[in-house]
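Both lines are given unchanged directly below:

***
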Amino acid sequence: MSEKNLRIGILRETKTPPDRRVPLSPPQILEAKEKYGKVDFQIQPSSIRCYKDEEYKYLKLPLSEDLSDCDILMGVKEVDKTTFLENKTYIFFAHVAKKQSYNREMLKEMMRKKITLIDYEYLTTPDGARVVAFGRWAGIVGAYNALRARGIRTDSFHLKPAHQCHDMDEMFAGLRKVELRSKKILVTGEGRVASGALETLDQLDIRKVSKDDFLNKEFEEPVLCQIGPQDYVEHKDGLPFDFNHFIQHPKEYKSSFKPFTRVTDIFIACHFWDEKSPHFMTPDDYRDSNFQISVIADVSCDVGGPIPSTMRASTIAEPFYGYNSMLEKEEPAFSSPDNVTVMAVDNLPGELPRDASQDFGEALLQNVFDAIVHADEEKIVERATILKNGELTPRYAYLANYVAGKE
């Protein structure tokens, strides 16, 4: 895209429940203006945004309800389909590329209005690595919520909700005052999300132990174990685990997770899961007399997926619910000591919106803005463009039946 007269609008978030994050902080908008010269910004006013309207005004950044003069409109979460402007380019987390039924009508409306849609989730390097993401923050807050649930459940310590903390520093300061009893904490996953979870657990100086020690030894202190797919699945025919083979042929594998259910107290799920992959547990596993897990923080939040107790996504306002394994149904949080406490918030970074937005905006400026403003030489933006002027691009042509309601 040419940088001449490029105008970028920062959208007010319209999804319910509300999200307070922004793609760029006010200082980062100034940074972009200084770096790219003829790029102008307009900010749609918002009463819920983590950065107040006054913070934009202070930096002399224009606020405008009407963004019709803008070429590109940037938000964070899905956009209310009644607000779309024709022939514009939108950039947000669209959640349509996996054929999510709840966003079908939104995508159809964008096609009707000849909109170009760029999805943050698919902004990648040529080798497929994502260049912007909130995953680290999901892990940071998800692990905190797991510990908070444990404190409420045992009435042994109190942590205030992350969203009531000013920022991560305040959240971590409160966490460091906690003395956790002897418990075994399990983290699944080896990516950004899991790394974020470990950042939180590091505040308590919890000792990390090997898989074998975690499964076979008792400890007089809290311990932590992090495992990847090589530890929780195995080939059905007993062949050695091969990560690339697992990714390409997940149906040839079965779960080997059950031994962990017998020793784990707090399970923080940060893994990536494919719907063709084996489930971690079955409802029967929860009813096993040796099942020990009392808190499951499902940061991955695959509803109806590998963790049966994740019956629905929870919310920042009400993050916990109970899972009655005998009846296989949801019950109020902490209503019975026999229930598993579930945390399944699907927008965890929204609990620390200023920190998460700052981190995200930094990655946007470093990795994406050149491709937006100048030339997309590495096709970073092209790979993430789902619609071009209302038409599915070749990479996303597989969505045609989904759009038509046939899938």
